[in-house]
Each structure stands twice: as structure tokens, then as C-alpha cells.
């Protein structure tokens, strides 16, 4: 068990550029979550995968955001045409569960990717 | 949508003091999490509970489902306990399977 891995740890880019983050969950975990955390605030839910299926998307996830988990293992989060307000820490978490939260398992978090938009 | 409130927002205490951090939420939940976040962002799950009380080392978490309230206690606090402690809940009524988080309590333990 190597834990949840996120890459890159930091990303600095100019406004208008596209960025992509990667999350590698704990290998046997079938659930994967993306959260966003701005300075001084708690994390906010963005989206959730059960295996390769994206089951929930927050209203925070605008059309510029897209997440994938093509083989039910690693996931990518892409932001197109980045804006200043996208500057935040993007956190990934994974857990082991059966179906739509009928059982509760702790979520294991990665160290996050800090995005800074110039 | 659940509203999660934590108090206090900031807490500075001396080494050895007994620490209490409170969390309240507005609608029914299936589970409540206490998380610890150190500078740099990494989050560690401390407890997940849906009733009663859990203890791990110097940490104790309690939850009162009827009052929609949970507390995290730290006994014999130590400077290495300095971190942001975050309460997060999973709604019981369906909807997003992700967690709803409080804003966190920034704890500083001075030697």
C-alpha cells in the first residue's frame, strides 16, 4: 500500500492555458474522489468515480473541467482555459466500497496538487 | 445540502492542555470524519464514526446523532499536534457521495 499519489505537486501556469493533473489511488480502491480547496477554506467536493463510471459531479465543476478514469484505476482532472479563480489545491481521495455509499469506508487522501494561475 | 460548522476557527494552547474542537451539521448523515491537515496540504483521516465514541492514542472523537454534533478531543497535547483539524460529513439522504467539509480549526500547541 503506497497510498494515494498525485502529480504534479505544484503547477504554475498562465491564465488561459490548459492543465492536467493525475491521481493514482490505492490499488484495490474502486472509489475515487476529486476535491478543491482554496486558501483558508475546507475542501469542496468536485466529482466521484465508482470504478470507471463518473457517478456524481458538483455544480462547482464548470464546463471547463473534465475528469476521467478510463480503466478504473488512475484518474485525470483537466482544466481548460484556466482562470485566476482556479488557483487552489486539488485533492484526490480513494476508498473501498460496494455501491453508492451504502457502506462507509474511510477516504484516503493524496498530498494534493497546488495550482497557481499567473 | 449539509452545512458543517466548526468551532473554534483558531486555537492556541500550551503543551499538555486538553483540547476540544467542535463540529455541528445541519442534516442527517451516514458518517462523520475527523481529518488532520498539515502545512503543505496532506490530509490524514483520524476517525470515521456514525455513533458513540472512538479513541486512538491521545485522540478521542464523540458524536451525538440527535444533536447533530461531534467533538474531537486531544489529551496531553504536544507541539506535533499543531495542524488544521477538519470535520467532514457524508449525507445520508443520497446525492453526492463526496464529503461536505467544515472550514477547519487551526490548532497551535506551544511548547
The number of distinct β-strands of chain B equals 11
Largest sheet of chain A: 7 strands, mixed
Shape of chain A: globular
Q: Structural class of chain B, please?
A: mainly beta
Strand content of chain B: over 45%
- N-C termini distance of chain A: 36 Å
Low-pLDDT stretches of chain B = none
Which residues of chain A form runs of ≥5 with pLDDT under 50? none
Give the radius of gyration of chain B.
14 Å
What radius of gyration of chain A results from the CA coordinates?
A: 14 Å
How much strand of chain A?
A: over 45%
Largest sheet of chain B: 6 strands, mixed
Please give the number of β-strands of chain A: 11
Share of helix among residues of chain A? under 10%
The coarse overall form of chain B would be: globular
Classify the helix fraction of chain B into a percent range: under 10%
The DSSP helix count of chain A reads: 0
Quaternary structure state of the chains depicted: heterodimer
Q: Which class of secondary structure composition applies to the elements of chain A?
A: mainly beta
